[in-house]
Amino acid sequence: QQQVKQSPQSLIVQKGGISIINCAYENTAFDYFPWYQQFPGKGPALLIAIRPDVSEKKEGRFTISFNKSAKQFSLHIMDSQPGDSATYFCAAGLMDSNYQLIWGAGTKLIIKP
Amino acid sequence: DAGVIQSPRHEVTEMGQEVTLRCKPISGHNSLFWYRQTMMRGLELLIYFNNNVPIDDSGMPEDRFSAKMPNASFSTLKIQPSEPRDSAVYFCASTFRGRGTEAFFGQGTRLTVV
């Protein structure tokens, strides 16, 4: 009930391509789904987040797609750039209990120039 | 704001020694988290404080781990005695509960126990 499964574990994409990372959750009570980006030697930083009342949220080149019935959500990075190379974490939790975020295992993304 | 400040950035210690990690959250934030990150287990929540009070410490692995938050601007995570399996990157994060859920992370302390 409390797992968030993230895939793939690692991903290599050519510059200009689309990077796609997927996550699946189990607890239907979750109502907050953030993606965090982590560069080497740094802490994770919030990239984009979505609530289940919308199916998609876009911020620049980053888009979250959310499928409530399938209990899945994904991060799409359009026109991927070498500067996007980082580890990406999805998470799921309750909006009013932020400490209960359940984290995915992370995806190491490498964008080849 | 300087963000969440952790010290030290790196710590190498011998097995059996006491280790103390320090964190200064963002001013005005009322929630603080300690996380541990390893390749094998990913990001694990160790303990959560709200208004300086420990709310959930179920993630603290053993009695060797303890955390305190004596005031709103300082927290410590102590490991005594340390063991090689404690080697990891420890992150502190803070947020203001009630103003959204974004957690702001520090740069982490890389702990190596030899």
Describe the protein's architecture and organization.
The complex is a heterodimer of chains A (113) and B (114). With 113 residues, chain A is mainly beta. Chain A is built from no helices and 11 strands. Chain A has strands at residues 4-7, 10-14, 19-25, 33-38, 45-50, 56-59, 62-67, 72-77, 86-94, 97-103, 107-112. In chain A, strands 2, 4, 5, 9, 10 and 11 form a 6-stranded mixed sheet that branches. Chain A has a 5-stranded antiparallel sheet with strand order 1-3-8-7-6, with no helix packed on it. In chain A, a hairpin with a 4-residue loop joins strand 7 (62-67) and strand 8. Chain A starts with a strand and ends with a strand. With 114 residues, chain B is mainly beta. Chain B contains no helices and 11 strands. In chain B, strands 2, 4, 5, 6, 9, 10 and 11 form a 7-stranded mixed sheet that branches. In chain B, strand 5 and strand 6 form a beta hairpin. The model of chain B has no long low-confidence stretch (mean pLDDT 92). Classes of the chains: A mainly beta (113), B mainly beta (114). Chain A binds chain B through residues 32, 34, 41-46, 49, 89, 93, 95, 98-99, 101, 103-106, and chain B through 4, 31, 33, 42-43, 45, 48, 50, 55-56, 91, 93, 95, 97, 101-108.
